[in-house]
């Protein structure tokens, strides 16, 4: 609906304060990157031409399109030297979707719509694509509207998550807030009974006030390790405490099991992970 | 107007040339006399072959223009598909000789009449294949084009028609081979080409001319088909790689 593939029957959508109804259809769409589950690459065009689709419509020069295609292909983890002149049919589903992401970003749109982009891709490739896209997203900083049915994907990808039910917005919150205080029974069921554990995935060791480093030969994890992984290490080693290292690899503090338990405990209230709302993630 | 029972004599001279040097083979009317064939290739067979190729190119060319326009229109306006299908299928079912006879009464005995008949036989295949090709373009690809801001016209020209090309080319191949074969019958109403030689040979009973003209028509069809395959490969290099669909 944002790019008016489905027309608006009621209400309005604004981008930077401007109603999308006031923009021309092609102008609006050329300014929004679109990635969807079926990928929809043009099978009769090379990877380079596919990526160059929107730039060509915008009248870019050939050399500029070529350079941009090379740059993007590298960014999404494919080989600019070997893959540029190949056809989409020669690639696997995961690789095709990487090309799809590159194509959507070709004209550097401010907004990207991703409609279940990794839904048809096998779990291992999906996980890799998600991680790569998160890394990519940190580099390019765009507003991404990401639609998924998979709550774990939403929790992983989204800075802000909107949960939709029967066409209504049920809750709009960060992953941590969502897990800590679901708005209603539906959201609670949706995020899962193990939401306490899931919360540990979206929080890292650095979100806790660290205890002083514990003496002894404790396992060491970096401060951006998720609490989920830290806890898992503790359980594996039969410990209740684990040391956290700084950037130089030296212990800067430690995490105790009790601290993790306090974080997840309901009396702790909602979390307050401050992530800039550069990306939103919707779940419908 | 009455229609002659046998075709107009071909422009290419007497059927069995009676100049002194007729070989034994020709006199005894063997199945195929190579020396007579090679001697008369340039004067008899080459002009007929060229006329046959012209006849075919014009028929398939005109058929393609009409069928292509009709298929695009039917693709955009669904209601048009059924009537045009019915019309072209109806034309296709008319026995060729009967159709030629009918047309002669309107436009006379000439090449133009023959072309009308030949064109009408190409329409069904070319129309159906073009339309099927367009309708077979994956919806995901069209959605992607729309979402990227392609106008409907850009989508048609840059996406839908190129993707329909393999189906269109398959239709062109069938139409071409069929027309080459059918054009021999059109010689009956003065179309010229290899058919004229075949009709002459049937009249005179000269076997060499009959076999040579027949084999040339077959060879022409095979070569045309091979050339079209090569053209198709050249213009659709992507079609050898099957796109995985989800």
Structure, briefly:
The complex is a heterodimer of chains A (284) and B (246). Chain A has 284 residues and is an alpha/beta fold.
Quickly list its features.
heterodimer, A: 284 residues, alpha/beta, Rossmann fold, CBS-domain, 6-stranded mixed β-sheet, 3-stranded mixed β-sheet, 11 strands, 39% helix, globular, B: 246 residues, mainly alpha, MetI-like fold, elongated, disordered N terminus
What does this structure look like?
The complex is a heterodimer of chains A (284) and B (246). Chain A has 284 residues and is an alpha/beta fold. Chain A has 13 helices and eleven strands. In chain A, the strands form three sheets. Chain A has a six-stranded mixed β-sheet. In chain A, α4 (62-75) packs across α6 (93-105). The longest helix of chain A has 18 residues, at 123-140. The radius of gyration of chain A is 22 Å and the shape is globular. The model of chain A is unreliable at 268-280 (pLDDT under 50). Chain B has one domain (35-236): MetI-like fold (Orthogonal Bundle), CATH 1.10.3720. Chain B is 74% helix and 0% strand. Chain B has helices at 24-27, 34-76, 81-93, 96-107, 111-135, 139-147, 152-186, 194-204, 207-235. In chain B, α2 crosses α5 (111-135), α2 crosses α9 (207-235) and α6 crosses α7 (152-186). Chain B is elongated and about 75 Å long. Classes of the chains: A alpha/beta (284), B mainly alpha (246). At the A-B interface, α1, β3, α3 and α6 of A face α6 and α7 of B.
The helix/strand class of chain B is mainly alpha
Question: How many runs of DSSP E, i.e. beta strands of chain A?
Answer: 11
* Helix-strand string of chain B: HHHHHHHHH
CATH superfamily assignment of chain B?
MetI-like
Choose one word for the global shape of chain A: globular
Order of SSEs of chain A: EEHEHHHHHEHEHEEHHHEHEEHE
What's the helix count of chain B?
Answer: 9
Number of domains of chain B: 1
Largest sheet of chain B: none
Our estimate of the beta-strand percent of chain A is 15-25%
- The Cα radius of gyration of chain B reads 22 Å
Instruction: Report the CATH C-level class of the domain at 31-148 in chain A.
Output: Alpha Beta
CATH level-3 fold name of chain B: MetI-like fold
CATH superfamily of the domain at 31-148 in chain A: P-loop containing nucleotide triphosphate hydrolases
């Amino acid at each position: 609906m944002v790019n008016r593939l489905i027309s608006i029957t009621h209400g309005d959508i604004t981008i930077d304060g401007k109603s999308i109804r006031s923009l021309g259809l092609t102008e609006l769409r050329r300014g929004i990157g679109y990635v969807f589950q079926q990928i929809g690459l043009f099978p009769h065009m090379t990877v380079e031409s596919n990526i160059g689709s929107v730039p060509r419509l915008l009248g870019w020069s050939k050399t500029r399109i070529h350079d941009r295609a090379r740059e993007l292909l590298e960014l999404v983890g494919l080989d600019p030297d070997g893959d540029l002149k190949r056809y989409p049919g020669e690639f696997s589903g995961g690789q095709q979707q990487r090309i799809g992401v590159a194509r959507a970003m070709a004209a550097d749109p401010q907004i990207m719509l991703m409609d279940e982009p990794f839904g048809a891709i096998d779990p291992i490739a999906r996980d890799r694509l998600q991680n790569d896209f998160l890394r990519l997203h940190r580099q390019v900083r765009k507003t991404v509207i990401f639609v998924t049915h998979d709550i774990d994907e939403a929790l992983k990808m989204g800075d802000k998550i909107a949960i939709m039910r029967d066409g209504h917005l049920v809750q709009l919150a960060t992953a941590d807030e969502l897990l800590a205080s679901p708005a209603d029974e539906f959201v609670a069921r949706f995020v899962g009974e193990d939401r306490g554990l899931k919360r540990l995935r979206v929080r890292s060791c650095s979100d806790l006030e660290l205890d002083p480093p514990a003496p002894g030969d404790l396992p060491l994890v970096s401060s951006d390790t998720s609490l989920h992984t830290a806890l898992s290490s503790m359980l594996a080693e039969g410990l209740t405490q684990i040391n956290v290292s700084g950037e130089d690899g030296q212990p800067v503090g430690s995490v105790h099991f009790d601290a993790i338990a306090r974080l997840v405990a309901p009396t702790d209230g909602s979390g307050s992970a401050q992530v800039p709302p550069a990306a939103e993630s919707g779940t419908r | 107007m009455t229609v002659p029972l046998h075709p107009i004599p071909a422009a290419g001279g007497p059927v069995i040339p009676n100049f002194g040097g007729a070989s034994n083979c020709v006199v005894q009317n063997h199945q195929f006399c190579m020396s007579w064939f090679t001697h008369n290739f340039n004067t008899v067979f080459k002009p007929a072959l060229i006329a046959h190729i012209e006849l075919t190119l014009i028929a398939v060319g005109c058929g393609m223009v009409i069928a292509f326009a009709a298929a695009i229109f039917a693709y955009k306006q669904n209601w048009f598909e059924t009537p045009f299908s019915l019309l072209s299928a109806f034309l296709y079912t008319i026995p060729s000789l009967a159709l030629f006879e009918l047309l002669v009464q309107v436009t006379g005995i000439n090449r133009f009449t023959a072309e009308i008949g030949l064109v009408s036989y190409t329409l069904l295949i070319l129309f159906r294949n073009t339309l099927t090709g367009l309708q077979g373009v994956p919806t995901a690809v069209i959605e992607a084009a729309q979402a990227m801001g392609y106008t409907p016209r850009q989508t048609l020209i840059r996406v839908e028609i190129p993707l329909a090309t393999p189906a269109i080319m398959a239709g062109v191949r069938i139409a071409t081979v069929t027309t080459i074969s059918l054009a021999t019958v059109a010689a009956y109403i003065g179309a010229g080409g290899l058919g004229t030689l075949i009709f002459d040979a049937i009249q005179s009973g000269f076997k060499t001319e009959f076999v040579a003209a027949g084999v040339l028509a077959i060879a022409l069809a095979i070569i045309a088909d091979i050339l079209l395959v090569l053209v198709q490969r050249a213009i659709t290099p992507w079609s050898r790689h099957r796109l995985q669909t989800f």
